[in-house]
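I need you to check the entry underneath: sequence plus C-alpha cells. Let me know what the C-alpha cell row says about the fold.

>
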Amino acid sequence: LIHFYKREERFDYCQRNQQDYQMPPLGRDPGGMTNMNLDTAMCSRCTNGFEPKAKIVNSNGELYHSSCFVCAQCFRPFPDGIFYEFEGRKYCEHDFHVLFAPCCQKCGEFIVGRVIKAMGATWHAECFTCEMCHKELADLGFIKNQGRALCHECNARVKADGMGKYMCQKCHSSIDGEPLRFRGEVFHPYHFNCTGCGIELTSSAREVRTRPGYTANELNELYCLKCHDKMGIPICGACRRPIEERVVTALGKHWHVEHFVCAKCEKPFLGNRHYERKGLAYCETHYHQLFGNLCYTCNQVIQSDVFTALNKAWCVNHFACSSCDQKMNLKTKFFEVDLKPVCKKCYDKYPRELRLRLKKYHELEAARDSSSQSTQ
C-alpha cells in the first residue's frame, strides 16, 4: 500500500516563530492587546508570574518566561525560534525527528512531509523505486515479487522470463506463440497492421528500414509477406530476413554477407573464393580436404603435380623417406612401413626378421584385396 499524510494532519504540530517583547506598563494596551497586570499573567510552563519589565515570550497567545520556552526533551532554546508541537508539548526539530518522525528504509534519513508506507517499511517518495529499472513507484504503483518492489512492466518481464517466454513491449504480457520483431524489440503480432494493405500482421511480417527509392515514411515500417514481395527486397537464404544492404548471390539464393558461410567451418567468406558441391558452399581448405587433394606433409592444397602413394597424396617436393627425409621421385624404390614411405637404403637397415614379417603382411593384404575385387 502507499500511504500519504501531511505533517499537520499526522502529528498535529505547528511551526511558529517566537515573539519576544517587554511586559507593557500596567493599564496600557500595545498593538490592540488587552490590558494585563502582573497579578493575572503567568507562565504557561511553570505557572509562575512575571516580574516587572521581565522578558516574555508570546507563542500563539501563550506566555512564557524566556528560560521556560525550551524543548520539552533537551530543555534547550529552539534554534532560530523554530519548534514542533505534538500533544501539547513543544520540541526542537532534532528531538521531534528522533522521537516521532519515521526513517526512510533506503537512505536512513528522517522523513518530513510525504511518507510512503510499503513493504513493511517507510520511505521517501524519491527513495521508493523499482529494484530493476529504478523508476519512482509512488505514483505508478508496484507489485511485490519475491521480496522486491517492481513496477508493472518489470514484473511482467520477470514473469515472462520465468516461463521461458518473450514479453510484449507494448502490452507487457507474455507472448505464447512466435513474437513479431520490430525495431529491436518483440511484440504480439496482432498489435500491428501492414503499412501497405492494412491487414493484421503475423510473426512472418517483414521490417523495412533503409532502402533506396522509398520515401521516409516507408522506412522502419512493417509489411505483410505479400506486400513485401512486391517491393522486390531480397530475402536471406539463411535467416529469412530482408537484405537491405550488401547482397551476396550464390547457390541460386541471396545472402547477408555475414550469413554466407562455409558448410564445414561456418566462417563467412567475406568476398573470398568459395567452392560449390551438391548445393553447399565450402572454403578452399575444407573443399580440398573433403573432396580434393591435400598434401600429407604440409596439409596444404596441392596446386601442381600430385604424387599419390599408400592411399595418400603429396606435393612432388614433399614426398620423402619418413626415416631419413631423403627426397624421392616416381623412379625411386620405396617400401611401406606403418603406412609411411621408407627408401630402400633405410629399409635394408631393418632387421631381417622385421623385413620378413613386413613382406608377409603385404602379401596377405594384396591377396585380400584381389579376392574382394574378384567377388565384386
